[in-house]
Amino acid sequence: MKKKKKTKCAVALILCDIIIVIGFFLTYGPISYFRNLLVTTSMTTMTHKYLARTFYTDEMIDEILKSNTVTEIGESVNVNDIVIGDFEQTGTYESVYEEEILKHEEGQDYKIVPLSGSGYKGYMAVIYDPSKIELAVAPKLGVRGSFLKDIAKENQAKVAINASGFLDPNEYGNGGAATGNIIKDGKLIWKGNPTGRTGGLSGFNKDHVLVLTKETPEQAIANGMVDAVEFGPFLMVNGKAAEIKGNGGWGIAPRTILAQRKDGIVLFIVIDGRQPGYSLGIDMNEAIRILKRYKVHNAVNMDGGASSSLVVNGETYSKPCGYSATGERLVPNGWILK
C-alpha cells in the first residue's frame, strides 16, 4: 500500500512539474502568441490587468502592447459611396455570404444571421432600411445606465445593440457615465472624455449614412450628424481595412460592431465571448475578416467585453458574460432598429 501511495505521489509531482514547465515555456518562451494574447486580453479589461502584471514587468507589457496595434486608415468617410437601397433580389448571388445578406422576404425589416468560427459564436442583424436606425439613451444617463433590453422595450425597438463605453471602476460601474461624447437628434447631450484609444465620433447623418469622423461634436453636427457616440477603433473606412499589427492590442473578447455596406444595408454584429466551451470571442484580425466577408464599406468597434449584447424583440438574443443573473450589464445607450 505504501509503495502505491509513493508511486501516486511521484506521478502527481511529475505532472505538476510538467504543467509548471509548460506554463513557464508559454509565458516566457520564444513563442509570442500566448504572451501577446495574455497581455492584450487582460489589459483591455478593468479587473483582470493583474493577470498580465503577475507575470510581466510594466516595461514588458508596454513593449507587447506596442507590438499589437490598430492603425486606422486616416481617411474621411466618402458619404457619396453609399447608395441606400442599391440592392435587389435576383435569386442569384455571387457568394453564400451575399445570399445571407440579401435574401429576405418583401417588406422584411431585418434578419438575424448566426456567425461562427474558430473559438467563437455570435450574431449579425442585417438591417435593410437605415432610416429606421437611431440611438436610444438610458433615461437616467449620467446617474445610472439601463439594461439594453429595457432600453429596447422603452423605445419599441425591434433590434438593439450596445454602443458607448462607460466609466467602470473595478467592473462595478452602473453604466451611467458614458466615455466620449454623445449626439442625439442633432444635439450634443453628453460631454465625456474618450477612452484615449483610436476612433472618434461614429453615427448616422441626416441621409442615414454611417459616418466615422475625428471632428468635434460641434463640427459633426454642423456637417449633418444626427446620432453619434464616441468609440473605436474605426475598422473599415471607404472599404479599406485598418492595419492590424499582431492581434491589434485588444486581445480576444466579446465584440460589438456597427457597420454599413455600399448599398446602405447596416449590420449590427455581436460576438459572444469569455465563455469557454461556447465562445471565447474574437480579436481585431477576425473582426476584419468578418467585415470583408460581408463586403462592409465602413465599420466601427463599439464597446465590447461584458457589455456586448444583442436584443431582438425585447429579449436578449446573444449570451452576454456579465455578472448579473442574465449576464447583462447596465449600459448608457444603444443602437436600435425602430
UniProtKB/TrEMBL annotation:
It comes from the Bacteria. The chain crosses the membrane at residues 12-34. The keyword ATP-binding does not apply. Residues 155-337 form the Phosphodiester glycosidase domain. Keywords: Glycosidase, Hydrolase, Membrane, Transmembrane, Transmembrane helix. Signal peptide: none annotated. InterPro entries: EpsL_firmicutes, NAGPA. GO terms for molecular function: hydrolase activity, acting on glycosyl bonds. The keyword Zinc-finger does not apply. PANTHER family: N-ACETYLGLUCOSAMINE-1-PHOSPHODIESTER ALPHA-N-ACETYLGLUCOSAMINIDASE. This is Phosphodiester glycosidase family protein. It comes from Candidatus Fimihabitans intestinipullorum. The lineage of its organism: Bacteria, Bacillati, Mycoplasmatota, Mycoplasmatota incertae sedis, Candidatus Fimihabitans.
